[in-house]
Amino acid sequence: MTGARMLVRVVENAGSIPQPDSENEELWSASSTDPTLEDGDGLSASVLVAVLPDFQIGTWYEIGSFQQKLDAANDEEAQSWTILEIFVKDIGEFTSCAFQAQASRAALAMCKAVVDHVRRLGKEVGVWVRVE
Fold first, then answer.
1. In which domain, by residue range, is 31 found?
2. How far apart are CA 20 and CA 89, in angstroms?
3. Is the distance from CB of 26 to CB of 13 less than 8 angstroms?
4. What pLDDT is attached to residue 90?
5. pTM for the whole thing?
6. Domains: count for the chain
């Protein structure tokens, strides 16, 4: 799957939906590939549309609302698979390992990890999440 990339952005805002051109403090982001590359292999955010109720790519969700969508996920029927590559830096060397993963479950795991990370930071109020 060439050109697939899933990016999850988390921003802090005073309680209103972030606007594309406004200055919001990016609290955290996660990408399924190197975000500096234009193309990448791996996960596409589009797999979430099939497993999350009323989910829209590129829409900002308040973190509690995003968590509710994740809790209501139904990935039992999603059968698409992808190749994921994990990069590891160990004592100055980079190595990688590629493996097959069910795309929807991998995307959901990534989103849940983002929510867990934000909650561990103690930042639940005024936090918004967007998946691109």
1. 7-77+104-131
2. 34
3. no
4. 65
5. 0.77
6. 1
